[in-house]
Amino acid sequence: MRMAFGSTRSPAGRSRRPPPERSIVGTAATRTVSYGLLIGVAGLMFVPFLWSLTTSFKTSPEAAQVPPTILPRQPTIDAYRTVIVQAPFARWFANSVMVALAVVATRCTLDTLAGYAFARMRFPGRELLFSAVISTLMVSPIVLIIPRFILLQQLGLVNTLHALWIPFASEAFGVFLMRQVFQSFPTELEDAARIDGAGRLRMFWSLAIPNATPAIATLAIFSFQGSWNRFLDAVIFISGAHRDQFTLPLGLAYFRSLYYTDWPVVMAIAVLTTLPLAVAFLFCQRYFVEGAARTGLNG
Amino acid sequence: MSLFDWDLLTQQGRFIGLGNYRVLVASDEFWSALRNTVYYVLGVVPVQSALALLLALVANRRIRGRTFFRSAFYFPSISSSVAVALMFLWILQGGGLADGILTLLGGTPPRPAWLSNPNGVFDLLASRLGWKLPSWAIGPSVALLCIMALNVWTTTGTMMVIFLAGLQDIPRELQEAAAVDGATSRTILWSITLPLLRPIMLFVLAIGMIGAFQVFDQIWIMTRGQNQTTTLVWLIYSESFGGGFRAGQAAAVATVLLAVVFGLTMLQRRLFDRQAEW
Questions:
Q1: Which of B84, B157, B169 sits opposite A297 (nearest CB)?
Q2: Which of B179, B174, B116 is nearest to B145 (CA)?
Q3: With a cut of 0.90, is the ipTM above it?
Q4: What is the pLDDT along chain A (299 residues), one digit of tens a residue?
Q5: CATH number at B4-277
Q6: Rounded to the nearest 5°, which phi and psi values hold at B228?
Q7: How many residue contacts between A and B have a Cβ separation below 8 Å?
Q8: Would you give the DSSP letter of residue B77?
Q9: Domain ranges in chain B?
Q10: In terms of residue numbers, what domain contains A221?
């Protein structure tokens, strides 16, 4: 994983500005300390992942040894075999993908539309409505669980995968992000389009959307990641008896209760759950990182 | 709903006024959950913000591989919380990696092992000096401290990315002009960079706090509220879907949680506004 990261130094993160003066950078000593700190912390960030990876290739007796071995002495893929054979892993994986794609599709549509409306259209109560949307960011998800559960139960959706995307089809973060993006566009283009007779939806589709593609990509990635990792709602909306409706985090928790002491198996499924995001991260780092940076700046 | 005796299974309720709150005030579990939540927020938020700021300041210098470091620090926060919690559960097992490293460094691993240890950390430190602390001052348990450390580990990267973006928005000209005028790099840092970064700091503190209040997945995987790791959010869960099915009681805790979050947000805003008046 370390090597893979090293090879992806994309130009995206490089400073846009010329490097600062030497005097600001400081002496060789502070440079050494700086590198030491950064490398040390990077090591701290990687060790747990590497440790899980090496554990997943150990036999369970070797994993239980005290003191632990660093690299597996007899590397084996038995743990992975157990995961694939003993569990409906493929099913859980497919469930996670379907739910995540549904969330991405609805959020990119609804949040973009709502963000555009809040940014560009004038209607009574707009500010009040927007504050209402934003204030939901402060509410703990757990507080929303009971009303959501009751609603889903009345709709007959508890213990189905629908319970994992319908309540999350739109949320404040995306609306906020898209509103900021649309507000930053100059209005002249739209004014010109209006003079040419374009309607609101046409302006949205032909002007706003093409210019907001990077932001929409950020939103898509954030939504995917959020859905992929969602646990709290899943553990409550899908009961343990409905194993065919599990997503990966649920499966992971279930595996842990089943293979309590067989750590290579637990680590293997943890690795398999993390891997898709790691791959996505390698290819779209810019969008991942800039999502956090952008919303941070605008906040 | 917090004013009803509401059964989650039958979905029937009976109005009981402030009865749920009366039960809360009388329950030890509630007070320990409130205390743990306060420990959690006061411990995690300043540490992760300060660490993230330090890393961002360092990484903002002319440094090779800045993109690499930024990505490396950010990766933990996008990984599945369940997967990460399991990794740490494994590392913190008795005889696991954490114990091994500690022994290598000449320390003695805690017993009971990390996440099974309900002893307060202040009390452990004090007893080394031969002091005995009153029960309200023993501090967060070792187990809670581990979960707090895990939260710092996952979230610092996000905060660093936000700080880094903020730092890159500060015009270099300001710092260069000050350097030409003979200001030392320390003066530049304290008089220019940090004051200009204040809005970002406020934001980082605010989202850090909201996130710290919401911790759930890690507790579910790692301790299930055992060993003094019950927080308000965990209490809401255990009162309702976690087995209690007392939705009214859970709603009362949720109301308290909302009040605490709201109060702290207001307090924070006031503190920062006062600073801004200088």
A1: B169
A2: B116
A3: no
A4: 233 333 333 334 444 444 444 444 457 777 888 888 888 888 888 888 888 888 888 888 887 777 777 788 888 888 888 888 877 888 898 999 999 999 999 999 998 899 888 888 888 888 888 888 877 777 777 778 888 888 888 898 888 888 888 888 888 888 888 888 888 888 887 888 888 888 888 888 888 888 888 888 888 888 888 888 888 888 888 887 888 889 888 888 888 887 777 888 888 888 988 888 888 888 887 777 776 666 543 32
A5: 1.10.3720.10
A6: 65, 40
A7: 227
A8: H
A9: 4-277
A10: 83-293
